[in-house]
Amino acid sequence: MKIKTMNTLKTIALAAVCIAFTSCSSDDDNTPTPDPIEAELVSNLFAPQTGGQGQPVGGEFAKFDFETGMQTTSDTDWDIAFRGTTIAVNGGTVTGTDDEPARNGDAGATIATGTFASVTTAEGLTFDQDADGSFAIPTGSDNGWYNYNPMVNVVTPIPGKVLVFRTRDGRYAKVEILSYYKDNPSQPDPQTDESRYYTFNYVYNPNEGETSFE
Amino acid sequence: MRLTFCFILFTFCYQTSIGQNEQKTVRDSLKVEKLEEVILTATRTERQLSSLPLPVTLISKKKILQSGTIRLDEILNEQTGIITVTDESGFEGVQIQGIASDYILILIDGVPLVGRSAGNFDLSRLTVGNIKQIEVVKGPSSSLYGSEALGGVINIITEKPKSEELHGNASYRFGSFTQQDINVDIKQRYKKLRYVFFANRFSSEGYDLNPDVDGQTVNPFENYTVNGRIYYDFNDKLSLFTSARFYDQVQDAGFTFNDVAFEGDSKEREWNAHARIDQKWNDRLDTSYELYYTNYTANERLADPISEDVLSDSDFDQKLFRPEIRGNYAFADAGTLTAGFGFQYDELDRTFFDETVSFNSQYAYAQYDFNPVERLNVIAGARFDNHSEYSNQFSPKLAMRYKLTNAISVKGSVGYGFKAPDFRQLYFDFTNSAVGYTVLGYNVALDKLRELREQGQILDVVVSEDDLNNPLEAESSVGYNVGLTFKEGKWNSELNFFRNDIKNLIDTRIIARKTNGQNVFSYVNFDEIYTTGFEINTGYKITNALNLSAGYQLLYAYDKKKQQEVEDGQVFARDPATNQTVAVTQSDNFGLVNRSRHNANFKVFYDIASAKANINLRLLYRSKYAQFDTNGNGLIDTYDTSFIDGYVTTNIAASKTFYDDFTLQVGANNLLDYTDNNIPTLPGIQGYVKLNYQF
Q1: Which residues are within 8 A (CB) of B538 and not within 5 positions of it... i.e. 6 or more apart?
Q2: Radius of gyration from C-alpha coordinates of chain A
Q3: Residues linked to residue B412 through DSSP beta bridges, in sequence order
């Protein structure tokens, strides 16, 4: 396997939306101001795997923590994790593949349909967790977040699939995966573009239990 | 084959004895004037083209010769509303009224040809040397022809020799890409016996549109077609027709995989044996007894030329046997009743099938062609198919033509068409060794799924077993055609509006997930689509020698469910600038793959009788179309990146006859040298020279 240097995780603050408290008055100085909702773009998160193509799949997952907005190697402080096209959550149990991280949080996932902006809340959604034999985000082409076209050998995130997560500690985030190829090309060429590099937008509400994304 | 022969012999003897008992010879009152263009396909009787209530295209031998076309796909491509296109599978097929090749029946002298690649019938398999005419009936024709005649029927008609002198042709044509076409035919009538012999050899070095990619776009090939026909008229009432046809092609094949250049051959071979006895009982009743057998085989083997490792070795062997009896009865001062019945045995043995599979079907059809009032012609017909593998099909059709004035007629028809699930959809058992997904035919899906589960390959099954127990339905359509014809003086115009509503289209879906993260696919009825638009053709004779014609087809082809989803805002695409999701709107929805909204042609044919020469120019246009869905939302939208721009091809040909017996033809197809890497069937300019010796 080729050795690749890990790309510096670029996090670009796209917008910092503050939910204004309209009822603010000078008497309410003690009311805690909620933390602002974070909207970020993560580029080139590398998620290698071993095996595949009929062989048992293995390799460390690339773990991600919404609280820091960074990739992490922590065994506990992670929410979601990537390996190839597979996405794990830090909630439930191991599914049974090799080299999986232990689940020690209460994360969950579901897939909403719409444009990224149209998913405004996690209210009312049902979250699945990883379980023996199945990931919360189903694996395989057209089952979960991606489509694999064998004609051109390209993995494309299915448009309109917004991944909504409950984090390990009961906060909410939504994710739109933009690309599975390095540097987010508009038309990936499987011959030249390296795969397993995730670029995604996410919106994270850091306030525990709050479901709103705007 | 022995059985076939016995049956022929039996029918033959039996009918001879009956025929000899007939005394009187009566002239056929129904026989149409020789000058008129006559069509067989639309009604299974001889009918004047101009009197038919159906949309029909007739291509004469003269047009084929003058155009310098040598394979069936080339000449059909020049007709309004008929397009040949390469689909996602990489195979080329024909499209009529926006309906794909899978649903177009191909016949020679009324009997079907088999051997399709991913549903596509390769029309370049058929040479157009030595045929009388090509007839194309558009719209559902299952009322006469059964399965596959959902979108239309293409029938190649051969000619019965008339002259007692020996006539024939020998020709040689040489063109770009070392394309060589050699034809020899002889025909003669000797009292009651007539015979035709025809042989063709066609070869090319192929061409390469994209030198950056390993291998050629079209690899070198050579093929042979041999056809012999014998006609014997026992008497005025009884005649025999027999035909044997053989086709053989070898094409180089190559595939580069993991830096190894695999090489091999791709072979195709086809046999057709056709025998028919036509019997005229009296001036009202005639009957035909027909036997037909065909066998199509294809084989492709790819191996590493150094290590001799075999990459792939695939076989395909399809057989069809079909006896049919039909008859026509002309009622006094009324219409003509046509009826027939037959039996069809269809068998396929191929790689990725566990065993040889076969279908049986029995069918009967009837059609009544009459004029309730002088100006109104009505054809009403229906066919019943009983099939061993899917539910029975009843296919009615009604067509009417009303003569408004001597120049103008109105016509309309409505018909049902169907296509039986094919062998692949029922019996396929294929696992992609590189990626690991599996495709299972519907009838074997349950058993195969159990096998996979026992091997521990299945994670979970996502459809219920009940879903897989109900038989797969035939794909079916209802087609409507309404039009006007106008014919006066030098003008000749035809307008036809069409709509085809197709349901139960068979497509693949995921039935289970595998432990390797891949899926198990099988076939299911689910899509509903429609194609609609209109076609207009106009011809104008400036003089007897100079003819202009123009044609245009407007086409809308959509998946109904997808259209609804777009309306509901449930279909998404990615903005190529940011890769972010956007909702697809109705105006973004382009419809189905490989459909061009506009298709037009313009032709000039000029005969210079004094110089025994003719020259013609044909311009063909098709507007942009998309090859496949690139953004995974299941439809073609403006965000897809597989669009092929609209383009024009310009074809010219000129012929001159000299010393009475020789004709020299020079021509060029695609004169303006238009190419696109994504149109594999369109090489650059192809010039050619042909010399024909006729005797």
Answers
A1: B491, B492, B493, B494, B549, B550, B551
A2: 18
A3: B400, B482
Contact A53 B434 (CB under 8 A): yes
The owner of tokens 């937008």 is A201
Cross-chain Cβ contact B517/A199 below 8 Å: no
Contacts A148 to B, Cβ<8 Å:
435
Residue B90: count of CB within 10 angstroms of its CB: 11
State ipTM.
0.74
Query: Quick one: which of B144, B148, B138 has its CA closest to B102?
Result: B148
Looking at chain B from residue 599 to 628, which residues have their Cβ under 8 Å from any Cβ of chain A? 628
Q: Which amino acid is at B49?
A: L
Span between the terminal Cα atoms of chain A, in Å: 43
Q: What are the b/e assignments for B283-293, b being 16+ CB within 10 Å?
A: ebebbbbbbbb
Cα(B571)–Cα(B631) distance, rounded to whole angstroms?
11
Specify the long-range contacts of residues B29-35, CB closer than 8 Å, at least 24 apart. Answer: B29/B283, B29/B330, B30/B330, B30/B336
* DSSP per position, B103-150: GEEEEETTEE----BTTB--GGGSB-TT-SEEEEEES--HHHH-TTTT
pLDDT confidence of residue B35? 54
pLDDT of residue B28: 41
Rounded to an integer, what distance in angstroms lies between the CA atom of residue B347 and that of residue B270? 14
For chain B, report the end-to-end CA distance as a whole number of angstroms. 36
Which chain B residues are Cβ-neighbours of A150 within 8 angstroms?
432, 435, 437
Euclidean distance between CA atoms B670 and B343, whole angstroms: 45
Q: Which residues contact A143 (CB under 8 A, 6 or more apart)?
A: B510, B513, B519
Q: Does A12 reach chain B within 8 Å, measured CB to CB?
A: no
Which of A 122-151 lie inside 8 A of B, CB atoms? 133-134, 138-143, 147-151
DSSP B427: H
Domain assignments of chain A as residue spans, ordered by start: 10-18+34-205
Candidate from A41-55, A84-98, B183-197 with smallest mean pLDDT = A41-55
pLDDT tens-digit profile of B120-140? 999 999 999 889 999 999 999
* Residue B530 CB contacts under 8 Å (≥ 6 apart), including other chains: B499, B500, B501, B502, B556, B557, B558, B560
In DSSP terms, which residues pair with B327 in a beta bridge? B287, B339
- Give A102: exposed, middle or buried? Use CB within 10 Å, 0-12, 13-18, 19+: exposed
The residue type found at A80 is I
pLDDT beyond 70 at B677: yes
Q: Which residues of A touch B570 (CB under 8 A)?
A: 113, 160
Task: Decide: helix, strand or coil at residue B573.
Answer: strand
Beta strand spans in chain A (E): 10-17, 37-46, 50-52, 55-58, 62-65, 70-72, 80-83, 86-89, 108-113, 146-149, 154-157, 161-166, 172-181, 195-205
Distance, in Å, from the CA atom of B462 to the CA atom of A28, rounded to the nearest integer, reads: 55
**Burial of B548: CB neighbours in 10 Å, binned 0-12, 13-18, 19+:** middle
pLDDT tens for residues B371-381? 999 999 999 99
| Chain B residues lying within 8 Å of A184, measured CB to CB | 579
Distance (Å, whole) CA B51 – CA A211: 71
State the nearest Cα–Cα gap between A147 and chain B, in angstroms.
6
> What count of other Cβ atoms lies within 10 Å of the Cβ of residue B620?
21
Cα torsion at B431, B434, B436, B439 (round to 10°)?
-30
Please name the member of A54, A152, A186 whose beta carbon is closest to the beta carbon of B436.
Answer: A54
Of residues B28, B105, B498, the one with CA closest to residue B282: B28
Closest CA to B88 of B627, B632, B681: B627
Facing A156 at nearest CB: one of B437, B519, B631: B631
B436 touches chain A (CB under 8 A): yes
Average pLDDT of A167-188?
93
Nearest CA in chain A to B514: A140
